[in-house]
Design a protein that fits this description.
Blueprint (H helix, E strand, L loop, with lengths): L6 H8 L7 H14 L12 H8 L3 H14 L2 E4 L3 E4 L23 E2 L9 H13 L15 H13 L9 E4 L2 H12 L5 E6 L3 H9 L3 E8 L2 E2 L1 H11 L3 E4 L13 H13 L3 E5 L24 E5 L11 E4 L5 H9 L7 H13 L4 H21 L13 E5 L5 H10 L2 E2 L1 E2 L12 E5 L4 H21 L15
Parallel strand pairs: 3-13, 5-6, 5-8, 8-9, 9-10
Antiparallel strand pairs: 1-2, 4-11, 6-7, 10-11, 12-15, 14-15
Helix pairs in contact: 1-3, 2-4, 3-4, 5-12, 6-12, 7-8, 7-11, 9-10, 13-15, 14-15
Keywords: Aminotransferase, DNA-binding, Pyridoxal phosphate, Transcription, Transcription regulation, Transferase
Family: In the C-terminal section; belongs to the class-I pyridoxal-phosphate-dependent aminotransferase family.
GO molecular function: DNA binding; DNA-binding transcription factor activity; pyridoxal phosphate binding; transaminase activity
C-alpha cells in the first residue's frame, strides 16, 4: 500500500506562499519540503482537486505546480495512481557518505563522530574490573544475556527513572547498534514495514533495510515530532516497527514530551506497532533538567535500547536491550546467533561505572562547557545559520540559508575539517540544507573547526550566482 499525505497536512506545511506567480511559489514550497525530508520520498501527493480545495487555489495552479515538480525531478506521475514525491538522482542520494580524511595528520579536526573521549572514571573502572576478574576465571566465561551484576545495575537505572525492571529483562550486547540488530533479527518478518524518523541516526536505516523492511518516514520539524502526522502514517501503513529516539534525538537534539510519549504509545499499541526506542542519549541532560519518563512507561510493549558509548566512552563496548518478558526467549536466541557474550572485563567495568550513576558529573560539566562554546562560535562566525540550542545530547543541528551542505562538507575537507552533511541523516534523500556539528571535541578544536568551516562557507557563498540565492522561507525549521 502506497503512503499518502493529506491535503490538510500539505496546507499546514506549505504555510503562506511568497510573492510572485502562485504556481511557482507553490512548486518552490513543495520542492523545499520534499528536499528537506518534511514530505518523505515515495509519498503520494493529494489529488489536484483535493489540494485545490485545501489551499483555496485554482486547479490550474495546482496542475502547473505539480508539472514543475515533475520537470525538476521532485515528483513523478504514475498513470492511474497519482503524483509521487522523488528527488533528482533517485533514492541512492540517501547513501551519501561522510568525507573521511584518510591518513589525516594532527591538523585535521574530525566532527563526523558524536562521541567524547573517556573520563578518568573509565580507567579506574577497568582497574576495579581486573581485580574482580579472578572470581570468574574458574567458569566457562559465556554470558549470552550478560553478567548478572551488570543486568542488575542496568535494571536499577530503569527503576530509578520510574520504570520497574527485573534484571532478567536485560540482555547485554556490544553496543546499542548490535542491540538494534538483535531486536530486528529476532522480530522482523520479511517484506514488513518500519516507521523511522527523518532525520535520524544513519545506521538505523541500514539495519532495517538489511532485514528487508520497507521504510516510511516520520519527519521532524522545529517543534520535534508531529504526533498527528505519525498517527496518520501508522494508520495507513500499520508498520511492524517504529524506531524512535525520544531523548536528545540524533541529530536534532529534540526531546519528546511525556504527553507526546503517552499519545504516541497509545497510537502504536492500537495498531500493534512495536516501538524500538533508542535511549543512548537520555542521561546527557546538560542543564540539570528532569527528563520525561522512559517511553516504555507509556507503552509496555516497547523494546528499549541503551548504551554507555555516549555517556562514558565509545571504546567501552557495552549496550543492552530492555524487553517485555514474552520477547526474551526470541531475543536471547537471536543474540546467540551473533556471538556468546560481551567480554567479562568490559561488563565488570560497566557495572562499576553504572553503580556510580548514569553519567559522571564532571563529564556533564565538560560537555556543557563545550556545547556553550560551540553555540557561541556558530552564532559569531556563521550568523546566517539557524539552530535550536539543545538542552542536552552531543550535537548541534544547523540549518543553512539554502541547500549546499554536501558541497560545504567537501569545502571543509579541503580545510582539514571533517563534518557530516544533512543527507547522511535522511533515510530517503534530502536535508541538504542541514549539517550536524558535535560539541565532543575540546573548545580549542571547536574554535578552529568553526573558523575553518566559516571560511569555507564564505568561499561557497561568493561563488554562487546571485540568481541562485533565495531568501529563507518564513516558517523554516530549526
Amino acid at each position: 500500500m502506497k503512503e499518502t499525505i493529506s491535503a490538510r497536512r500539505v496546507r499546514e506545511l506549505v504555510g503562506s506562499l511568497p510573492a510572485g506567480p502562485i504556481h511557482a511559489g507553490l512548486a518552490d514550497a513543495l520542492t523545499l519540503l520534499i528536499g528537506d525530508g518534511r514530505i518523505p520520498l515515495g509519498v503520494r501527493l493529494p489529488s489536484e482537486r483535493e489540494l485545490s480545495a485545501a489551499l483555496g487555489l485554482s486547479r490550474t495552479t495546482i496542475t502547473r505546480a505539480y508539472a514543475s515538480l515533475r520537470d525538476s525531478g521532485y515528483a513523478h506521475a504514475a498513470q492511474g495512481s497519482g503524483t509521487f514525491t522523488a528527488v533528482p538522482g533517485g533514492h541512492e542520494r540517501a547513501h551519501d557518505r561522510v568525507l573521511v580524511a584518510g591518513g589525516a595528520g594532527e591538523d585535521w579536526i574530525d566532527l563526523s563522530c558524536a562521541a567524547d573521549s573517556a573520563p578518568a572514571e573509565v580507567m579506574a573502572a577497568y582497574a576495579t574490573a581486573l581485580s574482580e576478574l579472578p572470581a570468574y576465571l574458574g567458569r566457562h566465561g559465556y554470558f549470552p544475556s550478560g553478567l548478572p551484576v551488570l543486568q542488575e545495575a542496568v535494571a536499577a537505572g530503569y527503576a530509578a527513572r520510574g520504570l520497574p525492571t527485573d534484571p532478567d529483562q536485560i540482555v547485554i550486547t556490544p553496543g546499542a547498534l548490535t542491540a538494534a540488530c538483535v531486536v530486528v533479527r529476532a522480530l522482523a518478518r520479511r517484506h514488513g514495514h518500519a516507521l523511522i524518523e527523518s532525520p535520524t541516526y544513519p545506521n538505523v536505516g541500514e539495519i532495517l533495510r538489511a532485514a528487508d523492511l520497507q521504510l516510511h518516514e516520520a519527519p521532524l520539524d522545529g517543534n520535534g515530532w508531529d504526533i498527528a502526522g505519525i498517527a496518520e502514517t501508522v494508520k495507513q501503513v500499520r508498520p511492524d516497527f517504529a524506531y524512535l529516539i525520544p531523548d536528545f534525538q540524533n541529530p536534532t537534539g529534540a526531546v519528546m514530551t511525556a504527553a507526546q510519549r503517552q499519545q504516541l504509545g497509545k497510537v502504536l499499541r492500537l495498531r500493534e506497532t512495536r516501538a524500538i526506542v533508542d535511549e543512548t542519549h537520555h542521561a546527557l541532560a546538560l542543564d540539570g533538567q528532569a527528563m520525561p519518563p522512559p517511553f516504555a512507561a507509556f507503552d509496555a510493549d516497547a523494546v528499549t535500547l541503551g548504551s554507555m558509548s555516549k555517556t562514558h566512552w565509545g571504546g567501552l563496548r557495552i549496550g543492552w536491550i530492555r524487553a517485555p518478558r514474552p520477547l526474551l526467549e526470541k531475543l536471547v536466541r537471536a543474540r546467540m546467533s551473533l556471538d556468546l557474550g560481551v567480554p567479562v572485563v568490559e561488563q565488570l567495568a560497566a557495572a562499576h561505572l553504572l553503580r556510580q550513576g548514569p553519567v559522571s558529573p564532571l563529564q556533564i560539566e565538560r560537555l556543557r562547557a563545550q556545547r556553550n562554546a560551540l553555540i557561541d562560535l556558530v552564532g559569531t562566525h556563521l550568523p546566517d545559520w539557524r539552530f535550536t540550542p539543545p538542552a542536552g545530547g552531543l550535537m548541534l543541528w544547523c540549518e543553512l540559508p539554502h541547500r549546499g551542505a554536501t558541497a560545504l562538507a567537501a569545502a571543509a575537507a579541503a580545510s582539514q575539517v571533517v563534518l557530516t552533511p544533512g543527507p547522511v541523516f535522511s533515510p530517503s534523500g534530502g536535508l541538504d540544507s542541514f549539517v550536524r556539528l558535535p560539541w565532543t571535541r575540546p573548545v580549542a578544536e571547536l574554535r578552529a573547526a568553526v573558523e575553518r568551516i566559516a571560511a569555507a562557507w564564505r568561499r561557497l557563498e561568493e561563488s554562487r550566482p546571485l540568481s541562485a540565492v533565495r531568501p529563507r522561507r518564513a516558517g523554516a525549521v530549526f
